[in-house]
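Deliverable D5.2: sample structural annotation.
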Amino acid sequence: MSSLSHHVVNMSALDVDLAAFAANPPDVMIVDPPYSKHVHKSAVSQSVVGGSRERDLGFEHLTPALRRRIARFAAFTRRWSLIYTDLESMAWWRISLEAAGATYIRSIPWVRWSMPQLSGDRPPTGCEAVIVAYGGGKGRKHWNGPGNLLALRHEGVEVDVAAADVAAADVAAEIGALTLEHTCMRGEDKHKAQKSLDQLLDLVTWFSDEGEIVFDPTAGSCTTGLAAKILLRSFVGFEIKPEWVAHGKTRLASWGAGGVAGLSKGDAVRYARFLETQTKEKADLARLAETTAKMRAKGEAKRAADKATTDGAAVGGELGVLADAIVTTRREATTP
């Protein structure tokens, strides 16, 4: 895998040469674009002094031009495209994807932590969605994910820090208090819309193969790129804000020869969670394979029994016809 490369470039997705992109498309696109104007306008957070305050996300809302451009990227991408979206924009994304020539597959809900509805007059938004689309690649589709995936959410489990190769004692203490749910990231050094590393490690694992190119046209803090590098995929990302390009390059460089030792504390925790879920998924797959084998064996036994019954009935019917013919012949022979 020495040919792998990982780049984040300071440019807008709208400035990409589509002809050049189509001539050398990525294998997979995973993108978390801005959400709708309504979502940005309604963004609030709890104030430390009580009540709520408007929350500046630090970037503009999704425009029709950017949505259509990302849909074009999806149409050119060889295989899967995953697009984060607010629920209200799902229909618009499907329309744009199909108009661009991509194949809409389905949407996966991301059940996440949600701040209580501060107005108290309606329920909170409890989930977002990930649009799954397929591009111009030929042949049968395949992915590496669990067949029983219903939503991007995990049950809480204890993480074995030793197995995860996380040495820091403070990380070990923190892991025990966390549950395996994919949640938004908060903190002074975090992007306002940053997704958790364990979630992106899952998505990159499920929808791409080693050695493939993963593309993110709104790279932000480069979580997708870090996940791709950890999992031996190449990465190309575009980001319009220079400060986040610099942050992304630093984050990509954090995974090197030392492995997890170079990661930040938060990324190390999330990486440990990912390893734990991988262990659970392998156990689930083994149980599924065992159950499938039993069901197939039961079905084959039933088919064999049904065939034996059908064959027996056919033989019995043939013998009956033969006996009737013999009786008739005898009667005809004895009739004067």
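Annotation notes: The chain has a mean pLDDT of 80. The first helix runs from residue 18 to 23.
The annotation will be released with the project's public dataset once the embargo ends.
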